[in-house]
Write a structure and sequence with these properties.
By secondary structure, the protein is of the alpha/beta class. It has nine helices and eight strands. The two termini are 18 Å apart. Bound molecules: pyridoxal-5'-phosphate.
Length: 220
């Protein structure tokens, strides 16, 4: 059986390999270990193997396991990668170091208020509905210019753009499109790529990849 350290090493070397043709440096790509659904006992070996950046998709679940893990490892960085309800903005700001799912004006207002109240300015990625899928979260592409302007005016640090491409189709064109939108709007960071496609995302400019299954195995 592969252990956490072996899996981490494999993902890291895949990232380094994907950097080469793109003439990128591996240290310019941050690996977010997506630990949703996994308990502290499953996460601990990855921390022991040196991983420090983790991602969760639900505020409540993260509140249950991360305060204790972080007390033991204060250098851990926690990213919220899932959709966020405005009424959870204060809790999200209190717990997370980076938020990847800022996608609408009402959430922007709630987060700006929560950050001012907490005196903590959490960098946020603007999530883009890159495949224009009606059911999916993310800012509609047509609304992106105005929304980015509103984010910049709010004082919330803009970390970059984030996307989840449509399932069951080639992700590369969507990653390339997100990179183009970022370039067009003078945005630097790109949060894109999951277990099935993170190497492609790295070749196309991802600065953050969000990898769960390849590190922890399949979720229930
Ligand atoms: C679960 C999740 C991931 C990780 O998915 P894997 O396929 O397990 O790597 C990445 N991003 C988001 C937004 C997720 O919800």
């Amino acid at each position: 059986m592969e252990n956490a350290a072996t899996r981490l090493e494999a993902v890291r070397s895949n990232i380094a390999r994907a950097c080469k043709p793109a003439r990128r440096k591996p240290e310019d790509v941050t690996l977010i270990a997506v630990s949703k659904t996994h308990d502290a006992a499953t996460i601990q070996p990855l921390i022991d193997a040196g991983q420090r950046v983790f991602g969760e998709n639900r505020v409540q679940e993260a509140q249950g396991k991360w305060p204790a893990l972080r007390a033991a490892h204060p250098d851990i960085e926690l990213h919220l990668i899932g959709q966020l309800q405005s009424n959870k903005a204060e809790e999200a700001v209190a717990l997370f170091d980076v938020i990847h799912s800022l996608d609408r004006p009402s959430l922007l207002t709630a987060l700006a208020k929560a950050m001012d109240k907490a005196g903590k300015h959490v960098p946020c990625f603007v999530q883009v509905n890159i495949g224009d899928e009606p059911q999916k979260g993310g800012c509609p592409i047509a609304d992106l210019p105005a929304f980015l302007e509103a984010v910049r005016a709010s004082g919330i640090p803009l970390a970059g753009l984030m996307c989840i491409p449509p399932a069951d189709t080639e992700a590369a064109p969507f990653f390339a499109f997100l990179a183009k939108l970022a370039a067009d709007h003078g945005v630097d960071g790109l949060s894109m790529g999951m277990s099935g496609d993170y190497e492609t995302a790295v070749m196309l400019g991802a600065s953050y990849v969000r990898v769960g299954t390849a590190l922890f195995g399949a979720r229930d």
